[in-house]
Design brief:
With 506 residues, this protein is mainly α. The chain has 26 helices and five strands. Helix 11 packs across helix 12. Bound molecules: zinc ion.
């Protein structure tokens, strides 16, 4: 079903837009050495030193800890999962636990001894080698790795651990060279491969996969990120409002590392602690009020107000890609509310707005809006007219009204009396929902949805009625009249309408 595909695509868009947030918001870090204290303040300071501290991934950390406690460590591990969920962190804790001088009986590293400290900080340790496969992907690198792996670890008791990041970037030839080591691994050598794209490894190096123990790390939820942020900020004595913390967690999009880096960034640019305003400013986010204003505008079908609203965003220097990603978030939250669910992680004011519009938007309309958002994505990224595209999209949203009409019309036939709402009045669906609720309260079982209701109607009446309904909806003259008056009002709007395949026309 295309709508479902649309949702997935919107997801991808959000992710891309967020990586743009990162890019926009963090250029200075590109010029910093990675280990300077400034760059890594919070993300580094609060990097876990023990398995128990690795957030969310207890299904993996408990297994690894148990293997160490029982002395049954494998020669190769594959850690899969999205970025920022703790793959490298877990690999380092594993290396720490293998080489810790004061390891606890249950397999936890002490986190404090010289070996642990060195491995934890990623600084020079003879026994742990971290390799970025994105820059060492060829067969020569793998051969060198193989030769190095043949050297014994520095001490009798210690383990040599190779952590290969972005492992999906290794070439097939490199994997073949590595396969030879994994087939006959030298004693006390452990490989940990980390990847965001395990399917690529499956394509290029299936035989290697069968020699690795695979663990899939979970994406970190907004709630868990917020909780960790609260803990970190409290430990640092930094004030952070719940709204602001939720905003950072949302922008981090499942990455704990990003969340802490964002918090760092906000702290660095603001003297007043972490507030919604300081987060917005530091991360270049769009104010929630703007989304609420857009939601109101669409709900009330004020198509003409789209242009000043979008112009205000443009004047404020807002990145429209970021804006659309945020809009998709809000529409998705509205969809959740319209379906009777909850919208987690939104600010109080947005939650009120969503509740206010819970019955204004039919789920079908919201799905169509999300679908339209995702359809526009490929054009939007390449377009030099991003503002116009955003305007067209919002006008289109403001003019979507078909499912409202069908609901109304079916109500008319069902109840026989509900007067039709004016075509452009605000929140026309409220009546329909109310009367549907009344019907449900009646003793006779009445089907709830529009489709069921229409199916329950006497077919002959239905046929006649639907004919009439169709006549009303496709009535050329009404549509033309409306378009003509819109064109007259605003020539730009007229051009926009011409470019749209408005559903209400067909
Ligand atoms: Zn230790």
């Amino acid at each position: 079903m295309p709508l479902l595909g649309g949702m997935v695509k919107v997801d991808g868009w959000i992710r891309r837009a967020r990586s743009r947030i990162r890019f926009i918001a963090r250029p200075p870090s590109f010029f910093r050495a990675p280990d300077t204290p400034m760059a890594l303040a919070l993300a580094r300071k609060y990097r876990p030193r023990k398995f128990a501290e690795v957030a969310v991934q207890s299904h993996v950390s408990n297994t690894l800890r148990g293997a160490i406690a029982r002395g049954r460590v494998a020669h190769g591990y594959l850690l899969c999962g999205p970025r920022g969920v703790g793959k490298t962190t877990l690999a380092r804790v594993l290396a720490m636990a293998l080489n810790c001088e004061a390891r606890s009986p249950d397999g936890e590293p002490c986190g404090e001894c010289l070996s642990c400290s060195r491995i934890w900080s990623g600084s020079s340790s003879l026994d742990v080698v971290e390799i970025d496969a994105a820059s060492n992907r060829g067969v020569d690198d793998a051969r060198e790795l193989r030769e190095r792996a043949m050297y014994a670890p520095s001490g009798d008791e210690s383990y040599k651990v190779y952590i290969v990041d972005e492992a999906h970037m290794l070439t097939r030839e490199a994997w073949n060279a590595l396969l030879k080591i994994l087939e006959e691994p030298p004693p006390r050598v452990v490989f940990v491969f980390a990847t965001t794209e395990p399917q690529k490894i499956a394509q290029s190096a299936a035989p290697v996969l069968s020699r690795l123990q695979r663990f899939d790390l979970k994406r970190i939820g907004q709630g868990e990120i917020s909780e960790r942020l609260r803990h970190v900020l409290a430990s640092e004595g930094i004030e952070g409002t719940p709204d602001a913390i939720a905003m950072i967690a949302r922008a981090a999009d499942g990455s704990m590392r990003d969340a802490l880096s964002f918090a760092d960034q906000v702290v660095a640019t603001s003297d007043a602690g972490i507030t919604a305003d300081s987060v917005r400013e530091a991360l270049g986010l769009v104010a929630e009020d703007e989304y609420i204003a857009v939601l109101d505008l669409v709900a009330e079908k004020r198509a003409a107000d789209v242009f000043p609203t979008v112009q205000r965003l443009a004047d404020a220097g807002i990145d429209f890609g970021v804006f659309l990603a945020g809009l998709a978030d809000v529409l998705r939250a509205q969809l959740a509310v319209a379906l009777g669910g909850e919208a987690p992680g939104v600010a109080a004011r947005t939650r009120d707005a969503l509740a206010k519009h819970a019955r204004t938007f039919a789920p079908g309309d919201l799905l169509r809006m999300l679908g339209a958002l995702s359809e526009m994505e490929p054009r939007f990224r390449k377009s030099g007219q991003q503002q116009l595209l955003v305007e067209m999209l919002l006008v289109r949203f403001a003019l979507i009204d078909r499912s409202v009409r069908i609901e109304e019309l079916l109500d008319e036939i069902r109840g026989g009396g509900a007067p039709p709402s004016p075509p452009r009045g605000p929140a026309p669906r409220t009546n329909a929902v109310k009367s549907s609720a009344q019907q449900q309260a009646a003793p006779a079982p009445v089907p709830a949805t529009a489709v069921e209701r229409s199916a329950a109607i006497n077919p002959a009446v239905e046929a006649g009625f639907l004919e009439a309904a169709k006549g009303r909806m496709t009535n050329e003259s009404v549509t033309q009249q409306r378009l003509a008056s819109l064109r007259q009002k605003d020539p730009v709007l007229g051009a926009t309408i011409d470019a749209l395949d408005l559903e209400l026309i067909d």
